[in-house]
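yo

u said u wanted the structure for the complex thing, so here. seqs first:
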Amino acid sequence: MMLIAAQILLGAALLLCVWRAWRGPGAEDRVLALDTLYVNAMLLVLTFGLRHGSSLYFEAALVIGMLGFVATAALAKFLLRGEVIE
Amino acid sequence: MSELTGALALAGALLAFAGSVGLVRMKSFFERVHPPTMGATLGTALILIASMMHFGTLHELLIGFVMAVTTPVGYLLLVAAARRRRGK
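structre next:
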């Protein structure tokens, strides 16, 4: 029951991040919303793993966490310099 | 599934939700950088501790290490880009 409540909260957090990524006045606001979206999705996958009792979800959460950092770093570098790899 | 595990996961989800609410409600970009770190640090830690207690393994520490190393670097790059774009 508590896990279902946690999943509902994380889903609402995902929707709030999507709203900020849609509305956000600047490009950096959208990147920040995308980074928060990655973190919340990773937590949601971990909660799914807890609920189903399977540790397969752990690898998916690890990959989501690492790819989230790569996406944020590449987008921030693009905003900083105008290109990703110089 | 014990009650303590569920309570830990719920507390972590509550922190992540509070961070997202702050992301929507704060006024300027430099204020909006702060709230998501609640979910990225303590929220993630609480849910990872719940997962460790449920499965009885320690490999969730890997996610904790990745998040602890990468989150400050990503936000630092993002704030540097925002400052550069505002001409500060």
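Chain A touches chain B through 48 residues (CB under 8 Å). The longest helix of chain A spans residues 27-52.
cya
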